[in-house]
Amino acid sequence: MTGLIPAYAGASVIYGAGMLELGMTFSLEQLVMDNDFIGMIMKSRDGVPVTEDTLAYKAIRDTGFGGHFLAHKTTLKNISLPSHPSVINRQMIGDWQRAGSKDLASAAHDKVTDILQNHQVKPIDADILKDMKAIVKKIDKMVAGN
């Protein structure tokens, strides 16, 4: 059995990324966290893949009654299918604790620091930039009444 279960509810705009205090404050850390949340929401629009592997029937059967399959290799293999967050940690609690128990806000702060120190902006392709400037020039003339 394979297929795709659609999960799209119709939303096309998500507002307020990075905002705190009803938009009176902006946080780069909140923006990084919201990016993960929004990425998960957008990924859900693609639906849920339904295959023998994602259903994990064999893993559940092999684990048996009373066991758990959360640490099973099939579950671990499929854990990132829903999305690929950059700061949300999906480790098992013991692994997370051994790695230092970094909370989400601290992970987001580290990501912000890394971006501010290391991100290199890729220049816009010259042909695209030329077209964009032509559009802006045309609109400027229209607004000025020329």
What does this entry look like structurally?
- Belongs to the trimethylamine methyltransferase family.
- It holds the Pfam family MTTB.
- Keywords: Methyltransferase, Transferase.
- The protein has 146 residues and is mainly alpha-helical.
- It has one domain (3-144).
- The protein contains seven helices and four strands, in the order βββαβαααααα.
- It has helices at residues 28-44, 52-55, 57-63, 73-78, 93-98, 104-118, 126-144; strands at residues 3-5, 19-20, 25-26, 48-50.
- Strands 1-4 form a two-stranded antiparallel ribbon.
- Helix 1 crosses helix 6.
- The N and C termini lie far apart (63 Å).
Number of domains: 1
Radius of gyration: 22 Å
Helical run tally: 7
Strand arrangement within the widest β-sheet reads 1-4
- Shape, principal axes of CA atoms: elongated
Order of helices and strands: EEEHEHHHHHH
Biggest sheet, in brief? 2 strands, antiparallel
Pick out the low-confidence regions.
none
The chain-level structural class is mainly alpha
Mean pLDDT across residues: 87
DSSP strand content: 5-15%
Share of helix, binned: 40-55%
Beta strands, count: 4
Intertermini distance: 63 Å
Which tags fit this structure?
146 residues; mainly alpha; two-stranded antiparallel sheet; methyltransferase; methyltransferase activity; transferase; MTTB_MeTrfase; MttB-like_sf
SSE inventory with pairings:
Elements: E1 3-5, E2 19-20, E3 25-26, H1 28-44, E4 48-50, H2 52-55, H3 57-63, H4 73-78, H5 93-98, H6 104-118, H7 126-144
Antiparallel strand pairs: 1-4, 2-3
Family: Belongs to the trimethylamine methyltransferase family.
Protein name: Trimethylamine:corrinoid methyltransferase
GO molecular function, one term: methyltransferase activity
